[in-house]
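Following the same procedure, backbone shapes were mapped to integers, as reproduced here:
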Amino acid sequence: MKPIWIGTLNKNDANNSLPPELFRKTLSIRSGLAEAKLAVSAMGIYKAKINGENVSDIWFAPGYTHYESYVQSHEYDILSLLRPGENTLDITVANGWWLGTLGNRNNRYGDMRGLIASLELSYSDGSCETVCTDESWVYTCDSPVRYSDFYCGEAIDLTHEDEHTWKFHPVLPLSCRLPEVVKQLGTDVTVDRRLTPVSQNGDIYDFGQNHAGVIHLTVQAEAGTVITVRHAELLGLDGGLFTENLRTAKQTLVLTCKGGISDFVPQFTYMGFRYIEIKSSAPIKILNLESLVLTSSCPETGSFSCSNEKLNRLQQNIQWSQRANFMDIPTDCPQRDERMGWTGDIAVFAQTASFNRNISAFINKWLYDLSLYQNPNGSIPVTIPKNPTYDPTGEDGFPIAIWGDVATMVPWAMWRAYADISIIERQYDSMKAYTEAELRAAAATGEGLEKYLWDSNPFQYGDWCAPGESYDDWLKKGDYLATAYMANSVRIVADSARLLNKAEDAEHYSVILQNIRKAFDRYCIKDDGRLSGDFQSNYVCALYFGLVPDDKKKAVAKRLAELVRENNYLIHTGFAGTPYILFALADNGYVEDAYKLLLNEECPGWLYTVNAGGTTMWERWDALSKDGTIKADAIPEMVSFNHYAYGTVGDFLYRRTLGLEPIEAGYKRFTVKPVLGGGITHAEGSLETRHGRIEIAWKISDGSFVLDVTVPEGTAAEITLPGGCAETISGGKYRRIIKLQPMDDSVNAD
């Protein structure tokens, strides 16, 4: 017996106001049940219960996928929930990503929800029974969940708990185009931790931390009492919730009490918030209030701390933003009417993310979807999964630097972190196809060596969100920055080809890379070391991605340092340059300049956001003034206080301040080379790798540098101490102590 897709005639309307459907099957269970496995998938998101008990602690199953191709199926062991005799299997299906609002647009992938399920029962006498979704199931829209939407929230009416009032209807077999059902590829969204309010001011409760999740509220109240809960990241100057940055998202719960004690936990939505406001139509007594922090279950792997407490808070902010935006897919934000898989954000953040958590399974599934959504010409939609009604590249698509380079950058980051060759094997064709799309776009506007410069495109995001500039300014810089990112993708494809023993491809793309470098040198670097396009991100990308010849690096790096100093060590880079500016400075002799930029406490700067009370990373540096005023003068609707893109600075903290970097993928061999500066007197951190746990701790004490390193068995570390003393060590614990020479902890090229 095979399950079939079942559904109803209920169709989504413009307001997504249709209540979720509860599908029911009554089960008759004999004595001697030995095994019970339930497999479920849906078009929408579902929650399954046996006799009123949750089947699992997973949220938003089956997840967000390339719906045109497949949906995931989860399998649950439900033996402990079943009893001899009559049992009730209830599966509620809500909109989720399938047909709720997404990107401020309705009816994304279908106009009705669907369910498919199979229950395999095995008895101790050797007999088996299969219960599948078929026309014998019934459904109702009378359950307590009256409304559900990711952006707008959820309505729960516990006066609808009485099943005797429910009207059940026969289900219908679905005959529309149906996705393939496959076993789960990714990771589950689960409760990561629980937060309780740290303070209360009237109706306003402060959880002390911006995060993504839902509240758990238990109250004592009269029947019919309506409780309205609104969520926000910030308070306005009047002390009330600041919700203007949510745009059309309401982030509101409407809860109707049953009388006596009512317990509410939304199941089919989530919010991005630190503060909530609770108002009720009649007096209530709050018996319990907590927030369930939700995230995809990626185990924590890395840690970093140092003598600068503000940097430690910054590191925590990076981790919290990653936690909030790894919600089955890597999103841009968890609060406003967006929450999509923007490719530019994860393209630059993947490497930092791989330090903080084991994201291999999470990203692997997402990359699979990227391959499925890739356009026939090799270009990549700007969101994965693709938003069916929004993509600036148009129906046929064209490559966009950084956002499209996610096709190469993320698989390569996964290879470096985990040494899983299967990711490169599976993604190689996608990586190659996108790189070819870039090369064609570049060649379309030039001849000879100039065809290796990608300096014209129908559209580029450019140096997105660079402070102090307009939207148009960001986009115009794209013509200067695209070549560097194209060169990086070409290098990655060449290196990937070598890994896969594709010698012809490796040679082909190596030649192309050399031609890009020659073209950049000839046409983009002036005799005095200045670049055509005299702005910080251009110098950063040219240096970091290896486009500057050795004999010109000194002059180019000097100009970058000049620009940084002229701007008083304030951030002046956007998405393109910010992830790499500290590396471009420190690796080219300007260590103290790098640390002055990192530690600057004025706006725009990383520590400015910390001083302003930020507990996550922000989309814009100037989103909040020192006096608490929300600033959004350039693009009013772009004020998110939970965006991980600028959290790429964590990469520098791990790789330079701590000094940990892989030489071989997966940390079979790695370097320990701390870069001292910024008055930091000690740092420590660790990383769980496939070979074991690496631990590094260093300190400056009484004029000496003390380094402690734990090297996993079967691996080797190349240690470089201040002053250049180097050695290679294998598995074990080591301590090295040297006397510091003047300037060892304060180095600059000039």
In short: The CA atoms of residues 654 and 660 lie 6 Å apart.
